[in-house]
Design goal:
- With about 325 residues, the protein is mainly alpha-helical.
- The protein has one domain.
- About 75% of the residues lie in helices and about 0% in strands.
- It contains 13 helices and two strands; from the N terminus they run αααααααααααααββ.
- The protein has helices spanning about 5-25, 30-35, 45-65, 70-95, 100-120, 130-145, 150-155, 165-190, 195-200, 200-220, 225-250, 260-275, 280-285; strands at about 290, 295.
- A two-stranded antiparallel ribbon has the order 1-2.
- Helix 3 (about 45-65) runs antiparallel to helix 8, helix 5 packs parallel to helix 7 and helix 11 (about 225-250) packs antiparallel against helix 12.
- It is globular.
- The chain starts with 5 loop residues before the first helix and ends in a 16-residue tail after the last strand.
- It is found in: Cell membrane.
- InterPro entries: TM_pro_TauE-like (IPR002781), TSUP (IPR052017).
- It is a multi-pass membrane protein.
């Protein structure tokens, strides 16, 4: 029997949890996996394995929602055009960057995006075609260096009028392109190593087990509450990881560095209190969101507009 170290055990556990969340909500795999896994692995080792898994996951989402592709492809095409140069630039940066500083950049980018979503910030963007290419380039850089793209996509699609099938098709198309192009760029830049691809043996079984578990769980609890609890977990883990990186890079001495983690926890508890105190309002505004198996989780739907709370973490 293969002996597992702490990093491998943690990776199995977090990918199982993240896959269950993805199976329940249809998103959240990378944004939950990366902050925890970065404590044990560098981006350069972790990213190639996650990207290969996400090629399959994103292709599946797109396949399930293929009937809506013809309705949205023109709207997302500028973003897709921007993704390609962004992915190439980000992949090159990943192959050259210092692992410690790249971890720090990842946490510093992801944390405010998580907290913005937790706060329920609404930022309608109307000029889709004008911002599409530069936005796509930025998402491409972020994804290829971190494998996370949900938070900025959430902010973009807020109040853009996508109905559920169209939204998931647009998200699936963008993510399928970014993961496929990133996987290809990693190959040509020589990012794949035996160590990175070796992580697949820990990740793939967790994904295969976790997704159906999540689909089962979500039928028995409130989807919005589950989503918000997962977001809090994400914020707390990012805060802890940020504190650890500050110590590793010698930027803040221990134990003062853990004040960053405490600050994140306090901010999230404040936002979490606001979420539960205005729970009825959120429930009334929620939509029916497609489940990963092509079905749907019925939530009260007042308008066909996708709000930020329905978008990926």
């Amino acid at each position: 029997m293969m002996d597992l170290d702490t990093g491998q055990i943690t990776l199995i556990a977090i990918t199982l949890f993240a896959a269950a969340v993805n199976g329940a909500l249809g998103y959240g795999f990378s944004s939950l996996t990366v902050p925890v896994a970065l404590i044990f692995y560098s981006n350069r080792i972790l990213n190639p394995a996650l990207v290969l898994v996400e090629v399959a996951l994103n292709s599946y989402v797109l396949l399930v929602n293929r009937s809506s592709i013809r309705k949205i492809w023109k709207r997302v095409l500028p973003i897709v055009f921007g993704l390609i140069p962004g992915v190439i630039a980000g992949s090159y940066f990943l192959s050259m960057a210092n692992p410690g500083w790249l971890k720090l950049i990842t946490y510093l980018i992801v944390l405010p995006l998580i907290l913005l979503q937790a706060a329920g910030v609404r930022r309608p963007i109307r000029s889709e075609h004008l911002i599409g290419v530069p936005f796509g380039a930025g998402v491409g850089v972020l994804y290829s260096t971190t494998t996370i793209s949900g938070p900025p996509l959430a902010l973009l699609f807020n109040n853009q009028g996508f109905v559920k099938g169209e939204f998931r098709a647009a998200l699936g198309l963008i993510r399928m392109v970014e993961s496929t192009v990133t996987a290809t760029a990693y190959y040509f830049l020589g990012v794949y190593t035996a160590e990175s691809t070796g992580l697949l043996s820990s990740i793939v079984p967790s994904v295969a087990i976790g997704i159906p578990i999540g689909a089962y769980i979500i039928r028995r609890m409130n989807a919005e509450t589950f989503r918000r609890i997962c977001m809090s977990f994400d914020a707390w883990v990012v805060g802890f990881g940020l504190s650890k990186v500050f110590i590793e890079l010698g930027l803040i001495a221990s134990p003062r560095a853990y004040g960053v983690w405490l600050a994140v926890i306090m901010i999230d508890l404040f936002l979490l209190y606001g979420f539960f105190t205005r729970g009825p309002e959120i429930s009334a505004a929620a939509l029916a969101v497609d489940a990963p198996d092509g079905g749907s989780r019925l939530m009260h739907q007042k308008t066909p507009t996708i709000t930020q709370d329905d978008l990926p973490a």
